[in-house]
Amino acid sequence: MLSEFPKQQITLGFDFFKMRKKKAEHIILPEIEIIDAGAEGKAVGRRDNKVIFVDNAVPGDVADIQVFKKKKSFLEGKAIHFHKLSEKRSDPFCKHFGLCGGCKWQHLQYKYQLFYKQKQVADNFQRIAHLATPEILPIIPSEKQTLYRNKLEYTFSDYRWLTFEDMNSQARDTMDMNAIGFHIPKHFDRVLDIEHCYLQSEPTNHIRNSLKSFCIGRGFTFYNPRRHEGFLRNLIIRNTTLNETMAIMVFGEEQPENQKLVLDHILEIYPRITSLMFVVNSKHNDTISDLEVKCYFGKPFITEQMDELLFRIGPVSFFQTNSLQAYKLYSLVKEFAGISSADIVYDLYSGTGSISNFVAHQAKKVIGIEFIAPAIEDALVNSKINNIHNTEFVAGDIAKILNVDFFVFKGHPDIIITDPPRNGMHPAVVEQIIQAHPKRIVYVSCNPATQARDLALMAEKYSISKIQPIDMFPHTHHVENIVLLEKAIVV
């Protein structure tokens, strides 16, 4: 009986399915046992030798599945009726669970989240890439499972997502449609209005909620992404473990007097703010890295500390989103690299130079290479403020920069650290790393699938010595992974 099961978990799953725009196949598969957790955080079932990817379920559930996508090799569907709830389940702590899409694994106990993340790494390396690996080290849990993010970006919208309760409300016709929150997955023009988010510590909820009320009261227009118009567009909040806070107000239109009212309101409700920035973005995309972000109050940056190092974070700077776990990550990278004072270290995809500066005191020289020029500027600043004089940063396409001439000019790499984006390394970069033949490579990745693909290309020259998963994003399926490669022994 459904009444025996937690009401929130059942209701959210069914309501969200009813609101989907996609036309379903109208196929219901009864009593499917969920046997695994798969890609993109979906649960996995099987019927007639066909894989079924399932929303709103966890391993151990037995449920009826409504199919909404049918492919030759797999199905996708939604659990609509549960016959058995798994012992691995946990009660979601957020009222927005099942809609916002930000923490898809809240209904899975944390110890099982870690289990399936570790399994994801093992499957990608051993079953898919067929790599010879040592025993994978136990995944390092996140010290905090909530309030762990140091950056959140909220979106203003004049057309908020209506929940099932909203759709059935008698006051629907007079309902305020303005929202500030997160995009509904796969709906670029729909935003879920967020009352309370557990991803970032205060003052994030206080600023967002107060700002919404103030702006509605003033009659300011919220952004419409279809018409590309509206005064209020985005709010970005960043913080650090040193209790510094930056708010970046993104306006869709130039309205100087109203901009001042909004910014002054933020100062009034949170006068302790470290940095208050603003930018006008009238483009058809949300990227602000190519725009002039102006400082309205305080400093144009906030500061994070790791060990004895300080890192300045500007409005468009990249920094690992989980600061506490980032420290553990960088410490492991340094340990795996085993750098000596005679070593030249290359840091590929170096970003703002966090890893470069973190390991610099052990090395003869560190050379960071990064495609995004503003990140290089941040890296240089971070070296300067920490009195680090043996780092060098180069901006450009790594696939074009990294070659024999570069090695001759800058020095042959003894150790290479690489931390590419989710799609992994360009084949040309992999080839140049092999040609450089450093004694050790430390490969950091947020996508074990592309990481395993790249490592398979190096298998003849390098053997995998260590594999260390680390959880940077609790309640999501994402997992960070560190791999140590050493020169293969030729028999």
Question: Secondary structure elements and their pairing?
Answer:
Blueprint lengths: L6 H12 L8 E7 L2 E2 L5 E5 L2 E6 L6 E9 L3 E11 L25 H19 L22 E7 L6 H4 L11 E5 L7 E3 L10 H15 L13 E8 L5 E7 L4 H14 L5 E6 L13 E5 L3 E5 L2 E5 L9 H15 L6 E5 L5 H6 L5 E6 L2 H13 L5 E5 L2 H4 L2 H7 L4 E4 L8 H10 L3 E6 L2 H10 L4 E9 L9 E8 L4
Parallel strand pairs: 4-6, 11-12, 16-17, 16-19, 17-18, 19-20
Antiparallel strand pairs: 1-5, 2-3, 3-4, 5-6, 7-8, 7-10, 8-9, 10-11, 12-13, 14-15, 20-22, 21-22
User: Considering the protein shown, what is the CATH homologous superfamily of the largest domain?
Assistant: Vaccinia Virus protein VP39
Number of E-type strands: 22
- How many individual helices? 12
Distance between the ends = 63 Å
Q: What is the CATH architecture term of the largest domain?
A: 3-Layer(aba) Sandwich
Coarse shape: globular
Kindly identify the CATH topology of the largest domain: Rossmann fold
What top-tier CATH class of the largest domain fits best?
Alpha Beta
What is the percent of helical residues? 25-40%
Strand order of the largest sheet: 9-8-7-10-11-12-13
Low-confidence stretches: 1-24
**Nearest-integer average pLDDT:** 91
Largest sheet: 7 strands, mixed
Give me the secondary-structure category.
alpha/beta
Strand % is 25-35%
Number of domains: 3
